Each structure stands twice: as structure tokens, then as C-alpha cells.
Amino acid sequence: MNNNTGLVLDNRYFNHVIERQSLENPERLRNLYQILESPKYKGRFTKIDPREIHISDVHTVHSSFYIDQLRNHSINKDPYSYDKDTYLMDQSLHTAQLAAGGCFQLVDKIMSQELSQGFALIRPPGHHAEMGRGMGFCILNNVALAARYLMKNYGLNRIMIIDFDVHHGNGTQDVFYEDNEVLFLSIHQKGIFPFSGDPHEIGKGKGEGYSVNIPVFSQFGDTEYTFLLGRLLQSLVEQYLPQFILVSAGYDAHVDDSISGTTLSTDWYRTATLMLRQYAEEACDGRLLFILEGGYNPVSLESSVLATIDGLLQPMNGRVGVLHSNRAEKVLHNHPARSFWTI
Ligand SMILES: [Zn+2]
Fold first, then answer.
1. Number of folded domains in the chain?
2. Could you say which of 128, 167, 168, 254 is catalytic?
3. Are the beta carbons of 166 and 260 closer than 8 angstroms?
4. 290 beta partners
5. pLDDT digits 0-9 by tens, 199-210
6. Is the whole-model pTM more than 0.70?
7. What is the pLDDT, as a whole number, of residue 3?
């Protein structure tokens, strides 16, 4: 039994949908919800209902111009192609507000110590949404909104965001690029959409050093990712001492997800979860929130999300062992973040 873990699942997340095939669609979640509602998981987690965030909360991250665009399209039944991946229809803004609101609910329960950790199984995803525009299936930046909510409502000023989606979290970086109240770490495949996330993107002004980008090569798998995540968590968490850890949890670096060339196994997501729990416990009383981003093979998405949930629910048995990887270590050689952090 581990009822200190909260999960957000809600059928209203299926309402943002268009006829034509999109990789990002309600089928990504439907089976997963069924499994989590089955007797196997009964009583093992606390189900949390989302709320719709207020437009004034949306303004803490996104520009008025973009919010006006979203509102204008929310009255049209006909889908509008915002860009080649991202569409808007009458339910899109509401569904996106409900997605961010799933994160807010978990933040509240974790901050009140009703829960110690959570996973928002939401859509649409958020980490590509910049202040002034949506992109890459993302409408509102859920993880950035959650971070701003933690700052504004709970007075936190050291929040760490770890993004292991295979694509760079350009939107999250955009929001906090000049901010030292968020340390943003992104591990992503080099040279793919959205073509940002170079190691030299380190932040600006008082945010200098607070964006840490780790582009990895196609073919990198469990050993390389575990080495990099382990090394970076150990150094950055110990030096930054986050008060809360948010995770942009994307599942498209899986070997069976054809959108990428990386080769993570399903079980890697359990390992990563145990590592994140360990550092959250050391730094911030276990305050840890996973937020769903990408993952476009419904089969590997489902098994990998369940591996994460099993990692949240299982007892902690000592530290996760990390094997050395020479080719992963090379990624850190001469990394510009070394001017700010010992890594
Ligand atoms: Zn992705």
C-alpha cells in the first residue's frame, strides 16, 4: 500500500481531438486509464480530480497575444491548424486548462503533505509551448505553469525541472531562460525537433547557468541515460538544493517509439523513477511530480508509464547502481554548464 502517491486521470482529457490522424491523440491514454482503474491497482494510489486553471494563471506563463489567439479559436467548432502538428478546436483551451489544473491539484496535495509524490496523466502535453506560441502538440506549458504556481502560491524559489522527453523542452527553457528560481535540465536527442537545446544555451542574465542542456546521440540507451541522469542529479541536486522536483516525463526515447533513434527499455523508466525519488527524498522531503509529455507508440507508452508508476509505488531499497559509460561521459566533456556547476 502506498497511498501517498496521487495520480490524475480524467476522461475529459479525451475532448481535445480531431478527425484526421494525429500522433498525439486520446488513444495514448485510454488503455492506460483502464489498467489503472482495474483491480490490480485498486487502493494502491490516490486518484485526484483535476480542476480547470483560471485564465489569470495562464497569464503567469503565456503572453496576452497568445492567450487571445487561444480564446478566439475556442469558439470555433472547426479545427484550426495552428502549425503542422498543433491544432485548436472548441475544446482545446478548456482541455489544456484542465491539464495544467491536474498538475496544480497534485502540487496542492504535495505541498499540504496529503501526498508526497504524484503523476499527472494528462494531455495535451506542454513542454514545447513557449510564452508566445504553442507548438509540437503543446498548447499550454503545464510544467512551467506548475513551477510558477509553486513560486507564486507557496513562495518557493528553487524548483528543479528535469525533462527526459526525447525532444528538447524549448518552451520550458523559453519561460525560465532569465530566471534562477528554476533550474532546467533537459536530456534530449541531438538534431531532431525542435532543433534547439544546444549545450551553449545556458540561460541569460540572472538565469545564466540555470538551463542545462544535454543533447545525446541516436542509439544511446539505458546505460548512457542512467549514467547521465545519475551524474547530473547527484551534482545538480546537491549544489542547487531544490525545494521541489518537477519531471517533464516523455516516453518517446523508448526503443519502440519510431519518432526517435534512442533505445531506452521499458524498465529504464522504473530505474529513473527510483533515482528521482532518491534525490527528491534527500533534497526536499520527497516532493516529486511527474507530468506526462510525449510518447507516441501507445504500447511502449503504456508499459513505460506503468513502469514509472511501479517505480513510484514500490519500496525504496537502497541506491540505484550506476554503470560507467565512456561515450556518455564524453557528452559532459567541456560542457559549458561546468562553468557554473561541478558536474
Ligand atoms: Zn517528445
1. 1
2. 128
3. yes
4. 119, 247
5. 999 999 999 999
6. yes
7. 65
